[in-house]
Amino acid sequence: xxxxxxxxxxxxxxxxxxxxxxxxxxxRVAPGGPFDSERALLxxxxxxxxAAYHLDEPLPQQxxxxxxxxxxxxxxxxxxxxDFTVTELIATGFPVSLRLGGxxxxxxxxxxxxxxxxxxxxxxxxxxHSVMAVSMTGISIPNFVMAPILILVFAVYLGWLPAGGLxxxxxxxxxxxxxxxxxxxxxxxxxxxxxxxxEVLRSNFIRTARAxxxxxxxxxxxxxxxxxxxxxxxxLGPATAAVITGSVVIEQIFGVPGLGRFFVQGALNxxxxxxxxxxxxxxxxxxxxxxxxxxxxxxxxPKVKYG
Length: 307
Hints:
- This protein is mainly alpha-helical.
- It has a domain at 96-256: MetI-like (MetI-like fold), CATH 1.10.3720.
- It contains 13 helices and no strands.
């Protein structure tokens, strides 16, 4: 296991390097610049600003400078948030996104696994068709459509929940954005769980458990759930990273100051270092989560061995 971990770690370095290079040169190719504004700056002032941020250097030299900063854990200063470094902005926005995304994925797991298991156990019944119909609806309706509907119903008409913002960070402020993020994930997890659980329930060891007179709950929880989780775990790695750091639309709709809003503002303002910092952070998070998923395979499936 330790040897496999080291090989995965060193294998991820070229992937991350390619990601950094592609993102670095693509954002430089985009029209506009970090110092463009409605009122044009004097050429002398703009030249001084570009020199201060080393933007007057050739692109290869800028790239090498940026890589050397990354090796020291320095994402550089933000061009638009002049009083903050990119590291400080990520440290400010990521805990908010982590709290929202973590709660959404936990809710999606609880509801999706339960619904998918019930649908698989009662295959071709009314419960199965109902779960699949709701899942298809959840997949078909994007969260930027569902979120305003939830706000309209529960905040405007009923007045039960606040329409946006985190307020004092209470649970009432978290419910609508968390549910909006979780709904598509619930649908995907329920469908994956159903398909995998149906295959597992047809296995010989499940027939043996039924012949021994074990209860339905015991068969599902103790014998069928672990092998049925394999495709779900594969999906959870990139899905968790996407929900935590990519909830751009939901954060914009609910006015949540998370990492997604910083990324959008950085892209609109051509804040090169902020966009690069979020991309690198996001890519690293995906690599780490996928690595944890691979390790979880060995626990879920005894046939998986890492040499």
